Amino acid sequence: MASVPVWARVYVACAVAGALVCLAPAPDVHVPWWAVALLATLYAGCEQATRCRLLGRNAPRVMGTFFPVLLAGAFLLPPQAAALVAVPGALLTRVEQRPRRLRRVWRAARLGLAVWAASRVHWALGGPDAVAEPDFPDALVPAVAAVLAFGAVLTALDGGILALAERVPVRNAWRGLFPRTLAPAAVHGLAGLMMAVLWRSHYGPVAALLVLLPMYVSGWVFTQYHRERAAHQATIRALVQAVDIKDGYTRGHSERVGQASMMIARELGMDDERVEVLRFAGILHDVGKLGVPTRLLRKNGPLTPEERRVIELHPEYGHEMVRGIGFLGEARSAILHHHERLDGSGYPYGLTGTQIPECARVVAVADAFDAMTSTRCYRRARPVAVALEELERCAGAHFDPRMVEALVRALGRHGWHPAVTADGDEQRGNVPPQSTPQRAEAGS
After folding, report:
1. How many beta carbons lie within 10 A of that of residue 212, not counting itself?
2. What is the DSSP letter of 379?
3. Given CB 3.0 to 4.6 Å as the disulfide criterion, which of 126, 238, 307, 331 pairs with 281?
């Protein structure tokens, strides 16, 4: 929306007009204006609280809109009054992208329409009586219907603005949008219902406000998790970039090995946490190259026995470099042992069979696969099918057959579409092999 097209501005104007119609008071409906003012102030305060240093500067992108107060308003107030709860907070919220004024107006209009729709559905299904005298689970029916209406309106409006302002193709603008909108709305809707029930009980509004405390704490925890995860990613990215700069011939190799390792781990049925660890292991498996002389990494032609021994030290260098990075977990042993072979012919310790950690056996297959399907200074890339045949031939002697079979199944199901290529002028996997010097794969 940096430079907003005319039709997108018209769309926003229509949304604003619709919201103004929804805000028009009904003469025969009693509105508790003190409750509207309290909820509107509370919502505005919750939106402003994302600037608090306790949550950090990135909190707004993580926490998003504070839906519990809006939905509590939908459960407690008539539709036109409920829609008004969202307006002050939306107009005062922080906006980082231009045009800021238009974005604030759009935010106020979309939230006002969504809350109005939720309140309308809730009241039509007898929701106010269910909140005043809750009889669970029957009281959940109007609340669930209201949350669905809330999510549906947001989805419809957001898809339209994506198509008109962001120029997303119409066939893709609404794809997957409703589930992504409904998930937080459902969780926040339950908190909003708890607020509404406590508000109408003899405990009163003050008790209802206590519901927000655990929501705020959970938002803080969620923010800290994302901040820590971003720090992990930045650490890994810096190490990988250093390796890529030092060994330009294998640029992108680390990311591709991480991708292949993740595919194998998922095919083996590992849980998401281990899959992530295997991805880290694949990405960082060659970080020890930072301790190897650059002239050896970039040498054309075969290595001498002494040069081979120097390069074969890179797993131990890598293990020492990441020893103190706690979040890597078992990825550290994969970095150390990814060049071990089942028959004991590998390095650095000549481990055999199950002496080799499982994560290292995964990375070994992923590393060999990408090394064969990438163009290097000493040979051309092999087609994917040829590389898989070679892995299957070496399964049981060099590579764990389970890992090889898992990679074959994963590639058969998903194909191989690496995001980064080793050589911008070559199409990986489509270059026929040719006779080249038999340089050791120690540095792959």
Report:
1. 20
2. B
3. 331
Which amino acid, one-letter code, is at 55?
A: L
How far is Cα 270 from Cα 285, in angstroms, rounded to an integer? 19
Residue whose pair of structure tokens reads 């040069």 in the numeric block: 307
Residues 6+ apart with CB under 8 A from 112: 19, 22, 23, 83, 84, 86, 87, 90
Residue for token digits 């219907």?
145
**Average pLDDT, integer, range 33-37:** 89
Taking residue 95's Cβ as centre, other Cβ atoms within 10 Å add up to 16
Residue 190 identity: L
Is the full-model pTM beyond 0.90? Answer: no
- For residues 232 and 87, give the distance between their C-alpha atoms in angstroms, rounded to a whole number: 38
Q: How many CA atoms lie within 13 A of 241 on its CB side?
A: 6
286 close to 255: Cβ distance less than 8 angstroms = no
What are residue 254's phi and psi, to 5 degrees?
Answer: -60, -45
The closest alpha carbon to 77, from 43, 114, 33, belongs to 33
Strands (E) in 318-422, as ranges, are: none
Contact 368, 256 (CB under 8 A): no
| Each residue's pLDDT tens digit, 365-387 | 999 999 898 876 556 778 999 99
**Rounded Cα gap, residues 84 and 109, in angstroms:** 10
Longest Cα–Cα distance in the chain: 93
Contact criterion met (CB below 8 Å) for 308 and 442 = yes
Question: CB of 360 within 8 A of CB of 331?
Answer: no
Distance, in Å, from the CA atom of 277 to the CA atom of 81, rounded to the nearest integer, reads 50
Residues β-bridged to residue 379: 376
Nearest to 263 by CA among 366, 399, 367, 335: 366
- Residue matched to tokens 């089942």: 342
* CA distances for 300 relative to 155, 315, 378, 436, 437, angstroms: 57, 22, 6, 10, 9
Digit-coded pLDDT (tens) for 43-98: 888 777 655 544 444 444 433 456 888 999 999 999 999 999 999 988 888 777 78
Q: What whole-number distance in Å separates Cα of residue 378 and Cα of residue 373?
A: 13
C-alpha 281/C-alpha 350 separation (Å) is: 20
Q: What SS3 state is found at 211? A: coil
Going along the chain from its start, the domains and CATH numbers come out as 6-210 (1.10.1760), 228-443 (1.10.3210.10)
Using CA atoms, how far residue 167 sits from 3, 4, 5, 15, 107, in Å, is 12, 10, 9, 18, 19
Task: Give 260: exposed, middle or buried? Use CB within 10 Å, 0-12, 13-18, 19+.
Answer: buried
